[in-house]
Design goal:
A hairpin with a 7-residue loop joins strand 1 and strand 2. Helix 2 runs antiparallel to helix 5. 69% of the residues lie in helices and 14% in strands. With 379 residues, the chain is of the alpha+beta class. The longest helix is centred in the middle third of the chain and has 119 residues.
Length: 379
């Protein structure tokens, strides 16, 4: 719980210089450094990546020789964006050619790194596996030491009371020296070994007490920092409300700007249409100017055309006079034609009557010839 609190405070930038150990006189040393874009999983959706850095930042492996532990640390300016202690249960997964991720249960998040090349990703993954194996080995050694110390303590508790009995049985030290046997020598060596184990256990206990006191002091500092962060929460909430108000105002401003942009785009379209119309009018103006130049050239020959027009007018008047005379003559000729037509009609009537009379005469002559023929036949 203490480590989780420390990681949480480190992630928000309250704990500065995370690579310095809490034990006085010790400091973590970088063992591998690279550059990458840092991402964290969205805590709400648990699916989308949220950028933790605006650009590529330094990402380093640190080794604490005092605690025999490894951490991945990355700082962007004064803000700690990665503070992940590597455990044997962690796994670094390559999700693409240049991107990898690992889950940190203590920080309750998933970190992602985007590299500039596949080689950098491969080197980081290889170092992760190496550090993971070293952390596992360190954990196993620590467990073995704790088990050994525990066994020694138990053996010391069982064997130490038997020592006075051996002394009382074997007599005084002088007697023991003079009457020492193989079993007594074995007991003495075992007693010496147990005494040294007890002394070592006492030394370790003092050391653990010192470390426990250090951890308590660190816990006190973390509690103070946590209280300070709790006090800052209200300030952050106020700042958040102010930011939300500013965000709402910015959204309204963006909406207005979008409306203005839409109007500007419409105005741009209208300007394009007007530009096309202006180009058409300019083309028409050039055509009109060409026509005007042609008219000016034609205007230069207007006086000559006027003189020709006056001559033509005189000729037209003369022609009109002649035309009037001709019309008078035509009127007389028309009257003569009408009279001739009437006379011709009368002549046609008389000719028709004459033809009728002639036809009658021819019929009579025909009958007369037939009569003569009959008379000639009779004779």
């Amino acid at each position: 719980m203490l480590l989780n609190s420390f990681c949480a405070l480190s992630s928000v930038g309250l704990v500065k210089q995370p690579w310095k150990s809490s034990v006085k006189g010790t400091q973590e040393q970088p063992i591998f450094t690279t550059r990458a874009h840092v991402f964290q999983i969205d805590p709400t959706t648990k699916k989308n990546w949220v950028p933790a850095s605006k650009q590529a930042v330094t990402v380093s492996y640190f080794y604490d020789s005092t605690r025999n532990s490894y951490r991945i640390i990355s700082v962007d300016g004064s803000k700690v964006i990665i503070n992940s202690t590597i455990t044997p249960n962690m796994t670094f997964t390559k999700t693409s050619q240049k991107f990898g991720q690992w889950a940190d249960s203590r920080a309750n998040t998933v970190f992602g790194l985007g590299f500039a090349s596949e080689q950098q990703l491969a080197k980081f993954a290889e170092k992760f596996q190496e550090v993971k194996d070293a952390a596992k080995l360190a954990r196993d050694k620590s467990q073995e030491k704790m088990e050994t110390s525990s066994n020694h303590s138990q053996e010391s508790g069982r064997e130490t009371p038997s020592t006075p009995q051996a002394s009382s049985i074997n007599g005084t030290d002088d007697e023991k020296i003079s009457h020492v046997g193989p079993e007594a020598a074995l007991l003495m060596s075992e007693n010496d070994r147990l005494k040294s184990a007890v002394e070592q256990s006492n030394t370790n206990a003092k050391k653990w007490e010192t470390e426990l006191q250090t951890l308590r002091e660190s816990n006190a500092r973390l509690v103070d920092t946590l209280q300070e962060s709790s006090a800052n929460v209200e300030s952050w909430k106020k700042q958040l409300s102010v930011c939300q108000e500013e965000s709402d105002a910015l959204r309204d401003k963006i909406s207005e700007l979008e409306a203005q942009c839409k109007e500007a785009s419409q105005e741009k379209e209208r300007n394009a249409q007007l530009t096309a119309k202006v180009q058409e009018l300019e083309a028409e103006l050039q055509d009109k100017e060409q026509e005007l130049q042609n008219l000016r050239k034609q205007a230069e020959i207007i006086p000559q055309l006027m003189a020709e027009c006056e001559s033509i007018t005189d000729k037209l008047r003369t022609a009109e006079t002649k035309n009037a005379d001709l019309e008078g003559r035509i009127g007389g000729l028309q009257a003569d034609v009408d009279e001739n037509r009437q006379k011709q009609g009368n002549m046609q009537g008389e000719l028709k009557r004459f033809m009728d009379i002639l036809d009658g005469k021819i019929d009579e002559l025909h009958e007369f010839r037939q009569g003569l023929s009959k008379l000639g036949v009779g004779n």
